[in-house]
Write a structure and sequence with these properties.
Structural class: mainly alpha
Oligomer: single chain
Strand content: under 5%
Number of helices: 23
CATH topology of the largest domain: Growth Hormone, Chain: A
CATH class of the largest domain: Mainly Alpha
C-alpha cells in the first residue's frame, strides 16, 4: 500500500525531457467524459420514481421532487470538494487527486445502488450526491493546473480540451444509460385486466389478493402501457415484483467509470520545473499587459483577499445561473412554446434531437470559445458572452410573442439558433475561467484557486433551477387566472364539475390546465403557453448585465499580493 501511494505522489510523475505533451489531454478528457455524465441525470428521474411500482408510481415510491434534488446535492458537493481540495491538489499532484476522484465517483454509484435496492433515499443522497459529488469536484479540477503548465502557449485551448469532455459526457452517457436500463428491466407480475381483478382501497393504496395475501398493486392504463420500457398489456401489476433496472445500472456504471478514471489518472504526468515548449518564447511585458496576463503568482489563500477573486466568482456564478436555468427546462420550454403552435414540426422526435444538439453545442462551445480566448483575451471573451447573451435572452420573449400571434417555422429557427448560441457560451464560460484565473493570479496555484471559485457553480446549481421554476410557476398561475376570468362560468362548471370558486383546488390537482381552459375560450384567444418563460428570460438577462459589470471591473492584481520569491520570466 505504501508503494502504491508513493507512485501517486507528484514528484514521481514528473515527465522526462522528451515527453510528448499531447499524451496528457486524452487522460483529462477521459476523466471529464466520465464525470460529465452527471448532466444525463434526468434519465434516472422516471425509473427512480417507480422503483417499487416499476410500470407506474406506487404509494411507497419516491416523489419526483425528492429525486431531482440528488442532482443539486451532487453539484453543491462538486463545488465544495473542489474548494476544499485545492491546496491538496497543488501539493500531491493530479494523479493522486484523479485516483481519489475515481474512488469517490465510482463508489458513489455503488452506495447509491445500495440505497435504491434497499429503497433508502438517504443512501442515494449520500452515494450519488455527497460521495459522487465530491468525486465530481476532484475529477473536474485535477487536470486544470497540469494542462495549463503543459500548454503555457495555449492556455485556453488546453483547458477547453479537458472541460469539453465534461460538456460531452451526457451525449455518450444518455444512450448508454437508456440501454442499460432496458437491459436490466424486468416487468412486475401481471394479474390481468382491471375489470377481472377484485381490488380494494386501503388508505389510498390499491390492494389485490395474491396467493392468499393482500398485496399492493398499480393499475396501468392504455397510454401508460404504451410508454413502458418494454410495452406490455394494460391492467393490474403487483408492486415489488419487478425491476426498473436502475440499481443494476448504477453498479455497472460505477465499475466502468472507476476503471476508466483509474487508467486515466495513472496516465497523468507533470512537466519538469521551468519547462517550456520547444520554440516558444513567453510574451513580452507589453504583450502580456494587453491581454492582462500576469508574470507573477498569487498564493491560494492570498487570492481570497483580492477583489479580483470575488469579481470573477460573480462572473462565473451568474453566467452559470443563466445557462443552467435554461438548460434544465430547455426541452420543456421548446415543447410549451412551439408544441401547441407548430405541433406537426415539434413532436417527440424533434424534442429528443434538440436535447442531443444542446450537448453538442455545449461541448463545442467549451473548446471553441476557450481557444478563441487565446487570441482575443479572456476579459474580452467574457464581455462578448455577456453583451451577446443579454441580447439573446431578451430575444426569447419577443420570439414567443411572435409565434403566439402568428405561428411560423421562422420563429422556431430563430429560437433554435438563439438557444444553441447560449449553450455554447454556457460551456465556454466553464472552459475559459481556468485560463482567466491563470492570467490574473499566475499558474503556480491556479488549480487550487480554480477549485475555490467553483463554489460559484454550487450556488448556481441551486439558484438557476429555483429561479426558473418559481418564475414559471408564477407566470403559469397568472395565465390560468387571466383565462379563468374570461371564461363562461356555466361552461367552466360543466367541463370541470365545479365552479370557478374551486379554481385553486382544481389547479392544484392539475384538473384545470391552460390547454383545457383554451377549449372554452372564444375563437382568436391567444394561448399563453408560449409566454410562460418571458419573466425568466428577463431575469436571466439582468444577471448577465451584473456579470458584465463585474467583468469590466477586473484589473491586474496589486503587486502587494504577489509571491516575492516565486517570480518567473514567463507567465
Amino acid at each position: 500500500m505504501a508503494g502504491l501511494l508513493d507512485a501517486l505522489k507528484k514528484e514521481r510523475i514528473v515527465a522526462p525531457p522528451d515527453y510528448n505533451r499531447w499524451r496528457v489531454p486524452p487522460a483529462s478528457i477521459s476523466i471529464h467524459l466520465c464525470i460529465g455524465s452527471v448532466y444525463a441525470w434526468s434519465i434516472f428521474n422516471t425509473p427512480l420514481t417507480r422503483v417499487r411500482g416499476v410500470v407506474a408510481g406506487a404509494a411507497s415510491d419516491w416523489e419526483l421532487s425528492s429525486v431531482v434534488w440528488v442532482f443539486s446535492v451532487a453539484i453543491v458537493f462538486l463545488g465544495l470538494s473542489a474548494a476544499v481540495a485545492g491546496r491538496w491538489l497543488e501539493r500531491v499532484g493530479p494523479r493522486m487527486v484523479g485516483v481519489t476522484a475515481a474512488c469517490l465517483w465510482g463508489g458513489g454509484f455503488f452506495v447509491g445502488a445500495l440505497g435504491i435496492a434497499l429503497h433508502q433515499l438517504p443512501l442515494l443522497y449520500l452515494g450519488y450526491g455527497v460521495l459522487g459529488g465530491a468525486g465530481l469536484g476532484l475529477g473536474y479540477v485535477s487536470p486544470v493546473s497540469t494542462l495549463i503548465r503543459w500548454f503555457p502557449d495555449r492556455r485556453g485551448m488546453a483547458t477547453g480540451m479537458a472541460i469539453m469532455g465534461f460538456g460531452g459526457g451526457a451525449m455518450i452517457a444518455a444512450p448508454v444509460q437508456e440501454w442499460l436500463l432496458s437491459l436490466y428491466y424486468r416487468a412486475p407480475e401481471y394479474l390481468g385486466a382491471a375489470s377481472d381483478v377484485v381490488l380494494r382501497n386501503e388508505g389510498g393504496r390499491r390492494l389485490a389478493e395474491v396467493a392468499g395475501q393482500l398485496r399492493e398493486v398499480v393499475i396501468v392504463g392504455s397510454s401508460e402501457a404504451a410508454s413502458m420500457v418494454h410495452p406490455g398489456p394494460e391492467g393490474v401489476y403487483v408492486v415489488g415484483t419487478g425491476s426498473t433496472g436502475v440499481a443494476a445500472t448504477f453498479v455497472t456504471l460505477g465499475v466502468v467509470y472507476f476503471v476508466v478514471m483509474i487508467a486515466a489518472a495513472f496516465s497523468y504526468r507533470v512537466p519538469p520545473e521551468g519547462w517550456t515548449p520547444a520554440g516558444w518564447t513567453p510574451p513580452t511585458e507589453g504583450q502580456a499587459s494587453r491581454k492582462m496576463i500576469t508574470r507573477h503568482h498569487v498564493d491560494i489563500d492570498r487570492a481570497l483577499a483580492t477583489p479580483q477573486f470575488y469579481l470573477l466568482w460573480v462572473v462565473l456564478c451568474f453566467n452559470v445561473t443563466a445557462g443552467i436555468g435554461v438548460l434544465g427546462v430547455a426541452k420543456t420550454m421548446m415543447t410549451e412554446i412551439f408544441g401547441t403552435t407548430l405541433p406537426d414540426v415539434v413532436d417527440g422526435g424533434f424534442a429528443a434531437t434538440y436535447v442531443l444538439m444542446i450537448s453538442v453545442f455545449n461541448m463545442a462551445g467549451r473548446f471553441c470559445w476557450a481557444s478563441l480566448s487565446d487570441v482575443i483575451g479572456r476579459k474580452t471573451t467574457y464581455t462578448v458572452f455577456f453583451v451577446l447573451g443579454t441580447a439573446l435572452y431578451l430575444s426569447i420573449p419577443y420570439t414567443a410573442q411572435q409565434v403566439s400571434a402568428s405561428p411560423a417555422v421562422v420563429w422556431l429557427v430563430v429560437f433554435y439558433a438563439v438557444t444553441m448560441i447560449i449553450f455554447t457560451m454556457y460551456g465556454g464560460g466553464f472552459a475559459t475561467i481556468p485560463a482567466y484565473l491563470a492570467d490574473v493570479f499566475g499558474t503556480k496555484f491556479v488549480g487550487g484557486i480554480h477549485g475555490r471559485i467553483l463554489t460559484a457553480w454550487s450556488i448556481a446549481g441551486v439558484l438557476g433551477p429555483v429561479l426558473i421554476t418559481s418564475l414559471r410557476a408564477s407566470a403559469l398561475r397568472d395565465a390560468l387566472d387571466e383565462l379563468a376570468s374570461r371564461v363562461d362560468p356555466a361552461a367552466f362548471e360543466a367541463k370541470f364539475g365545479a365552479g370557478l370558486d374551486r379554481l385553486d383546488a382544481l389547479v392544484e390537482a392539475k384538473t384545470v390546465t391552460i390547454a383545457k381552459l383554451m377549449e372554452l375560450m372564444p375563437e382568436g384567444t391567444v394561448d399563453p403557453s408560449a409566454t410562460l418563460y418571458n419573466s425568466t428570460m428577463l431575469v436571466m438577462a439582468g444577471l448577465l448585465v451584473v456579470a458584465l459589470v463585474a467583468n469590466a471591473l477586473v484589473r491586474p492584481v496589486d503587486a502587494r499580493h504577489h509571491l516575492k520569491d516565486a517570480l518567473r520570466s514567463s507567465p
